[in-house]
Amino acid sequence: MFKKDFPYFKNSDIVYLDNAATTQKPQVVIDSQVEYYEKYCANTHRSSFSDANKATQKYEDSRKILKEFINASLNEEIIFTKGVSESINFVASSFTRDYKTVIISSLEHHSNIVPWHMQGRNLSQGLKVVNCDSNLNFDFEEYENILKENPNSFVSVTHISNAFGKIHDIKKIIELAHKYESVVMVDAAQSLAHTKIDVQELDVDFLAISGHKTFGPTGVGALYVKQQHLKNMKPYQTGGATIHEVDFNSSTLLDSPYKFEAGTQNIAGVIGFGEALKYITRIGYKNIETIEKDVYNYLNEELSKLPNIVFYNDIENCIGSRSFNFKNISHDDIGILLDKMKVAIRVGHHCAQPIMKKLGIRGTIRVSTAFYNDYEDINKLIKALKKALDILN
Amino acid sequence: MTIKQKVEKIKEDLDFFEDELQKYEYIIDLGKKLDALDDKYKTPENIVHGCTSQVWLICEQKEDRLYFKGTSDAIIVKGLIYIILEIFSGEKIETLKSVDMDVVYELGLSEVITPNRQSGVIGMIKKIKELAQKA
After folding, report:
1. Residue A267 and residue A288 in one domain
2. Which residues in chain A are closer than 8 Å to B24, comparing Cβ atoms?
3. Which end of chain B has the least Cβ crowding within 10 Å, N or C?
4. pLDDT per residue over B11-56, tens digit each?
5. What distance in Å separates residue A316's CA from the closest CA in chain B?
6. Inter-axis angle of helices A267-283 and A50-69, nearest 10
7. CB contact under 8 A, B24 and A362
8. Of A214, A247, A282, at which residue does a domain stop?
9. Are residues A234 and A127 in the same domain?
């Protein structure tokens, strides 16, 4: 029903089920970027001729759109980045060094693990991991025990697992953290394509946002920083466009968000991201959630009928991704054969090796859906899986 | 037969299949022909890096030539190993040292022989070159 908005589906006969890796882009997003390059390509925040003013205006419009989209209080709380990985690295480098302990969950992808290792934190030195139960649900009892023993910690958790689609109850995670004077960053890489986020209602301290997983262009994302933390954030890079005044002895920085956006940004990308958010607003999360839940349930029902399928979690509190294997069959073989049948899924560890190791597997077959996927896509997937199983058995 | 000639011969065989899926069924059949590798060789030092699947590769030197054996936990990859061993096993050490990795792109298996970081086939050829350097 919504595929007509996405040129990819007109130009490709692939059944696209790799949305957790990146989503397709609607025509309005593509047009907005082309329009920038064709009609008013100029740098932002520097020059004062009319095209430069227009570029600056459109760029800042996107900030306002995102601010309203996630219900932030101020434009200053929205910092554009390359994406979730940069947002997390930014906070890890610019804010968290004073926190003795960082708490993550066992479902994190590498972007929310490696930056902490780079800080010198590991399991014996300032990194704590909250495990999950057999259905990959967050263990709140263990979490509270860790918080009790380590008040004033920095908590960094994913909202929705890219590998398994499990939704963490971030409201509860944040409430508990605040009870123990801790600060929380939520990795929302998988969130905005599927569900509404209200940063004030959640009372989250930091939110890492992806553009390209939210129907926007690649190479763009954002970091929401609650106002009270802005003064304690130090830019981890500076240079052009961040500066108030410079002489050879010293430099003074602009206020947020400009001091955090060094160099020329991905202007077209940011403008496109704003358009993607406007597109989502037009469709509405109520619609998106209804369609997705329906397709996700159908996917699960149809997969469950396949012989020797192994799941690693139930579908309670899940959206987007469904991960599985077949007994005695390598996920790599399935990936290659499905590709030959024009079905795009992802196989492997999904940049989440620790949870794979914990489950004693090397990876999974992951089907990840978006609101434009329909029953027909699932039927084609199931047909291809059956054929692949026939060939491999 | 030179390495290039061997690649051309395999390419001819693969090109016989117009249907891509049939081509992979053929590769799966080749995998079934691969000699078994004793479990004792499935050690970390024999693992090929850069493979999404687990691949083990060992070699035996006879005079100035290297003879390879390998296996994988994925069936299609076993077929690819069969192809790689057909091309490189039994070649002279000096030849293997200077193998041009691009030669296998000729096979046209772009989905599995890609320059990306996960490409197992390229990992196998790198390992073959490493083993030749050490021999």
Report:
1. no
2. 336-337, 340, 391
3. N
4. 899 889 888 899 999 999 999 999 999 999 999 999 988 767 789 9
5. 30
6. 40
7. no
8. A282
9. yes
Asked if B111 lies within 8 A of A336 by C-beta distance, the reply is yes
Average pLDDT over every residue of A95-114:
95
The shortest C-alpha distance from A390 to chain B (Å) reads: 11
Strands A15-16 and A343-344, sheet pairing: parallel
Residues A121 and A165 in one domain: yes
What was the pLDDT predicted at B125? Answer: 86
Same domain, A196 and A312: no
Q: Which domain holds residue A316?
A: 284-392
How much is the mean pLDDT over chain B? 87
Residue A75 within any structural domain of the chain = yes
Name the band, by pLDDT with cuts 50, 70 and 90, for residue A202.
Answer: very high
Confidence check: pLDDT of A344 > 90: yes
What proportion of chain A, given as a percentage, has pLDDT over 90? 91
One DSSP character per residue, A284-349 reads -HHHHHHHHHHHHHHHHHHHHTSTTEEESS-STTB-SEEEEEETTB-HHHHHHHHHHTTEE-EEE-
ipTM higher than the 0.95 cut:
no
pTM over 0.90: yes
The catalytically annotated residue of B7, B34, B37, B51 is: B51
Check CB contact under 8 Å for B74 and A330: yes
d(CA A120, CA A123) in angstroms, rounded, equals 10
Helix, strand and coil content of chain B, in percent to the nearest 5, comes to 55, 15, 30
B25 touches chain A (CB under 8 A): yes
pLDDT over 60 at B95, yes or no: yes
Total number of domains in chain B:
1
Within-domain flag for A357 = yes
Please state the rounded mean pLDDT for residues B99-124: 72
Confirm if B135 and B66 have CB atoms less than 8 A apart.
Answer: yes
Interface contact A336-B21, CB threshold 8 A: no
